[in-house]
Design a protein that fits this description.
heterodimer; A: about 425 residues; Rossmann fold; Ubiquitin-like (UB roll); de novo design (two linked rop proteins); five-stranded mixed β-sheet; four-stranded parallel β-sheet; 19 helices; about 15% strand; globular; B: alpha+beta; four-stranded mixed β-sheet; 8 helices
Chain lengths: ~425, ~160
């Protein structure tokens, strides 16, 4: 399966972020077409027809989300672009922001027109300070050519966009925590329902869409939902930007039709494994996903196939490990991440991850015992089933899956010899 | 009420009014104003947090709770340059621990500490979205890609020159 550059069509072109670069490649053609020839309902229908599913990780149908928000009569409404890309292993949104900011802005304006919103925010993670500057420049350019602002292209439609920087909290990628943060609070998740489409920013109807989702909208309006739905798999249409990293020869972002296999992605696109090394495991959806092993290399990378394989697509962050990786240490790295990023609101996530990390410390210290694995399983089940939000629920997938698939590596730590793995773990 | 001139000069005060004006809901300006204030002051002292709360017109606790929640906001002084080493998986398996050790050696400080000359603070951070160029180190807002133990010295040197 070869790369299909729909979203990445402008990546690596000269001066890619400039509005003129965007305009020569069918940029801002979809927006005037929608404003002139389509009703907001037509736009929603086209997105529904495309069966575009949210690229932030949850895979919720974008058209349905927009439909819910458009049916709510309260005003004002808001469009939020979720650019708080924080899932470990994910860097696709950074590539889009830096190379094609106008594709995101055009998608936001189309979304605003569709749901009846006049105000948009781009919530961008604090670490992407360069990306925030690029977006602000792009907004100014778009306002200068009447693609954003008051009375866009004399259509009577107003839509403005403000860039809002986060400050280093992973949980703010979760849409309700993001909204809390945007309201000037600690970013902690809200109970759902009600969903943001009805009770969002300032308790008003709000759609929150991922960068990649919004960048898909203009091509859908331009070429039609049927065209988009013909790409990928029937249940998960379209292209997906995969962020590939870890022990591969060519880490990077690869845009491929949904449903490409893990094997093709790693070996045909990302250059395969490093010399003289073999594939050991991959986390296909970042730190929140369960690991896959060699016998699963032919799994299709899409929402449904990965769920059936006991893992998840998430944001498409494929972290690949070779035979030098110590899976206990790998799990420790990921659990420490979740422990740090737990917002502290609910007890199972806050306390559970603290204790899980301490037990892993003990195991790595050579002071663990086999009964620790039962204890860990027990705590994991508590965290997974009783956490307040998705962060806690997904936080132990790495641990549960490595305990199941690499139990022997944990067992090796319970012997006097310590790790059964080769001493070399990283190259530098 | 703290007078603006005691904390920020006239230009800074005008910048802050510009930030506040971007939002229909004043409380939404808390985070951007704290980013701005930290950029000017280096860290968010009690005085600054109190001032920003009164500037926006929210209870003091609103700026204090935000400042103590987010990793990128500092309520204690930090060095002039913040050296942030990614410790997450893709950087970890590509040698971030070696980079961290080299930085500790070179700066002669532990994680979380500031050099005695006040120039550098060294911290470990979670994934910064640069996994395609692991291991990655961010100094202030600058991303350094595919860092090697040998390049640590040169990277630090370029910031020493700036101070």
């Amino acid at each position: 399966m070869s790369e299909l550059k729909v979203l990445t069509r402008n990546v690596n072109r000269p001066n890619p972020a400039h509005i003129d670069s965007y305009l020569v490649n069918e940029g801002y053609v979809a927006l005037p077409r929608a404003l002139n020839d389509m009703t907001p309902e037509d736009v929603i229908d086209e997105v529904k027809f495309s069966r575009l599913r949210g690229r932030g990780g949850a895979g919720f149908p974008a058209g349905m989300k927009w439909d819910f928000a458009s049916r709510d009569r309260r005003k004002p409404k808001y469009v939020i672009c979720n650019a708080d890309e924080g899932e470990p292993g994910t860097f696709k949104d950074r590539v889009l922001i830096e190379n094609d900011p106008h594709a995101i802005l055009e998608g936001m304006a189309l979304a605003g027109y569709a749901v009846g919103a006049e105000k948009g925010f781009i919530y961008i993670r604090g670490e992407y300070s360069e990306g925030a500057k690029i977006l602000e420049r792009a907004i100014a350019e778009a306002e200068g050519r009447s693609f954003l602002g008051k009375n866009i292209l004399n259509s009577g439609f107003d839509f403005s966009v403000t860039v809002h920087r986060g400050a280093g909290a992973y949980i703010c990628g979760e849409e309700t925590a993001l909204i809390e943060s945007l309201e000037g609070k600690r970013g902690q998740s809200r109970i759902r329902p009600p969903f943001p489409v009805n009770v969002g920013y300032n308790n008003l109807p709000t759609i929150v869409n991922n960068v990649e989702t919004l960048a898909s909208v203009a091509p859908i309006i331009l070429r039609g939902g049927a065209w988009y739905a013909s790409i990928g798999t029937p249940e998960c249409p379209g292209t997906k930007m995969f962020s590939v990293s870890g022990h591969v020869v060519r880490p990077g972002v690869y845009e491929l039709p949904m449903g490409v296999t893990l094997r093709e992605l790693i070996f045909e696109h990302a250059g395969g494994m490093r010399e003289n090394r073999s594939f050991k495991a991959a986390f296909p959806g970042g730190a929140s996903s369960a690991c896959l092993i060699e016998s699963q290399l032919d799994v299709q990378l899409d929402f449904n196939a990965l769920a059936a394989a006991g893992s998840m697509l998430g944001s498409g962050a494929v972290m690949v490990l070779d035979d030098t990786a110590d899976m206990v240490k790998v799990t420790h790295v990921l659990i420490k991440f979740f422990e740090h990023e737990s917002c502290g609101k609910c007890t199972p996530c806050r306390e559970g991850l603290f204790w899980v990390r301490r037990i892993l410390d003990r195991i790595l210290d050579g002071k663990g015992s086999e009964s620790d694995l039962d204890l860990l399983s027990d705590i994991c089940e508590g965290i997974r089933s009783t956490s307040f939000c998705g962060l806690g629920e997904a936080s132990v997938s790495c641990l549960v899956s490595t305990m199941e698939k690499f139990r022997h590596e944990y067992m090796a730590y319970f012997k006097d010899t310590g790790s059964g793995m080769p001493a070399v773990e990283a190259t530098s | 009420m703290i007078k603006s001139t005691e904390v920020f000069n006239a230009q800074e005060f005008a910048d802050m009014e510009g930030i506040l004006a971007r939002y229909d809901e004043p409380a939404s300006a808390i985070l951007p104003l704290l980013h701005y204030a930290q950029g000017v002051q280096g860290h968010l002292s009690e005085e600054v947090l109190t001032f920003v709360a009164e500037f926006i017109g929210v209870p003091h606790v609103r700026t204090f709770e935000v400042a103590t929640y987010y990793t990128m906001l500092f309520t204690e002084p930090v060095g002039r340059h913040l050296v942030q080493v990614c410790r997450n998986l893709s950087c970890h398996v590509n040698g971030s621990e070696d980079i961290l050790q080299a930085l500790k050696r070179e700066l002669d400080i532990d994680i979380g500490a500031t050099t005695s000359d006040g120039i550098f603070t060294l911290v470990e951070v979670e994934c910064i979205g640069a996994c395609d160029h692991a291991p990655a180190v961010m100094v202030d807002g600058d991303l350094h890609r595919s860092v090697t133990v040998d390049s640590v010295d040169r990277i630090l040197g370029s910031y020493r020159e700036k101070t």
